Amino acid sequence: MSRVDVLGIHVSVTNLDRTVETFARWIDDGERQLVCVSDMNALLHARADARLTEVYNTSGLTVPDGMPLVWAGKKAGFAEMDRVAGPDLLERVLAEAAERGWTQYFYGGAVGVAQELSERFQDRHPALKVVGVECPPYRALTDAEDAETVARMNEARPDIVWVGLGAPKQERWMADHRDRLNATILIGVGAAFDFHTGRLERAPRWMQRAGLEWSYRLYKEPRRLWKRYVLGIPRFLLGVLRHPPRPA
C-alpha cells in the first residue's frame, strides 16, 4: 500500500473500506501487524520522537484519522485517500468481526470502560466474540504485572487487540509488545473507547468532514485541549508549508 510523507511520518494511502479489507487479509493469512491511527496531534508527537517515527513508519498501516492528513495526501496526488477515524474503524471492524468470527480483546480506558464497550457492542452484534477486557492502571506496570498481561492475552488468543491508552502511550505500548503477543493485529484507537461508551461526544458529521472536529472538542474540553490545538495547528501548517507532502 502506498504511503505519503507528511512531516517525515509515512501515512498510509487508504480509506475505511480498504483498511477493513486489509485487516481481513491479515487475519486470513495469520500476518501479525501493528496499526497506528494518526491525527495531527499524534503525528506531531511522532515527528519529535525518533522511536515513535520508526513505529509509525514501520507499522502495517498508519491510517489518517484527521482531515488535515487526508488533505495532505490529496495534495501529494492520492485522490483515493480518505479519513479513517478511530471510532468509525472500531465500529466497522466489530460489525465485520461478528460476521466473520474474529475475536477481540479490549485493553485500556478508565475502570469499567472496556467492559462497557464490550457489552454495548455485543448487544448490537450478538455473534461478536470478545475474549478479554482489561483496564490497566495509569502508572507503569511492574515487569511481573506486564508479563501477566502478556500471558493473559496470549491465552485468550484474540485476532485483534484494541488499545485505548491515548497517543503516544499506546503506540509505545504496542511497539514494546508486538513481538510478545500472538494476536494478529494490535491497533491503538485513542479515545474511541470513550466515544462509544458516551463519555465523550463526537462532533456533528458535517464538522468531521469539514475538518472542524478539533474546534468541537476544544469547545467541550478547553482546559485539557487548548495547547494541543492552539499551539499544534500552527506548527502543523507551518511544517507542511516548509515541507510539502510527497509520496513516501
Automatic annotation (TrEMBL):
Key words of the record: Glycosyltransferase, Transferase
InterPro entries: WecG_TagA_CpsF (IPR004629)
Pfam family for this entry, one: Glyco_tran_WecG
PANTHER family: PTHR34136, UDP-N-ACETYL-D-MANNOSAMINURONIC ACID TRANSFERASE (PTHR34136:SF1)
Protein name (database record): WecB/TagA/CpsF family glycosyltransferase
Organism (species): Kribbella karoonensis
Taxonomic classification: Bacteria, Bacillati, Actinomycetota, Actinomycetes, Propionibacteriales
